[in-house]
Specification:
Helix 4 links the parallel strand 5 and strand 6. Helix content is 38%, strand content 22%. It has a 6-stranded mixed sheet. Strands 2-1-9-10-11 form a 5-stranded parallel sheet, with helices on both faces. It contains 9 helices and 11 strands.
Length: 240
Amino acid sequence: MIQGRILLTRPENESVALAQELQTHGIQTFIAPMIEIAPEKAAIIEKAISQIKSDAPQPHAGLIFTSIHAVRAVADLWTDMAIPVYCVGSRTALTAKEHGFCNVHDANGNAVDLERIIPRAAQKYIYFSGKHISSPLAGTPHDRIVVYEACEKPHIPAYVQKAMESGTIAACAFFSARTAAIFMKAAEKQGCTSALKQIKALCISDSVIKYADKNKWQDVQHASAPNGDDLKRLVYETMI
């Protein structure tokens, strides 16, 4: 257990939801979102779906989601809720089920784990994603449709920077490599990287650590498995 608060860097809505969950366990938080989710317009997504379907020589074998934001952007526009759906992790899979998909498969890991559970088929899959992806699905034939953009917000609010420098913040959680990279860019720009020497960085996976620049932190740890649930487990183990 360590004394102090944890800094959450996810998009606003996700950080607020996680903060509420953590607070029920006595863990106090600060929030500094490093990205903002901008969904694509429904009409543009519908047009892209229609075009891909018409161009395909045969029906697609299933849908692929690597983000809850992609599920939310697509669910109300898709009619065949029995189509096989392959999700990178448990939160994405749960979100797909909550939005009516009834044949959902959960890789409970990263892009490599996801490709392991996707059956090899004669048909392509449809991959709904954000504009920026960290790990392309190179081994799975697919048609990709961008349904949202995670826009950078490389700024640490003044009150958060003050809490970092005073030692009030004891840990910082990174759920993606891009979030870690944006945070480090903001810290460099605002001249507060020296404060990181008294903060632990908690990362969703080992691959995220290089983006967090591990030498600048008091300590850097990664979740036992590359998914949100295991990172939250690491947060609890660290903070309680």
